[in-house]
Design brief:
Oligomer: single chain
Largest sheet: none
Mean pLDDT: 75
Low-confidence stretches: none
Number of helices: 3
Amino acid sequence: MESALPTSKPVASMLAPEEVFSASTSSLKVPSELTTAEKRARRTNERKRRRRQRDTLEKSVNKLAKPKGAVKKEKQTALNTLVKQGKSVTVVGKGSISKDKHKKK
């Protein structure tokens, strides 16, 4: 007797759809259909996901954040590169030394 199956097709293509595509265990359910254990597991997973997102956000913010005093140092170095330091230079707002203090009495 002859077989009705084609010989040129692979075995995987001859499987039934439910054998090829298994149903996922986390199929969508309405919250009223969930058991208490499933509800608890879903809440726990949601909390963990939020915590991971928060941690990655904090890490990225910490990389970009500057330490205290960094802005002041940057301003000072920019000022030093732009302004020549000398007797005739006066920077407004930088507590300049008056000439009266240097004169001898």
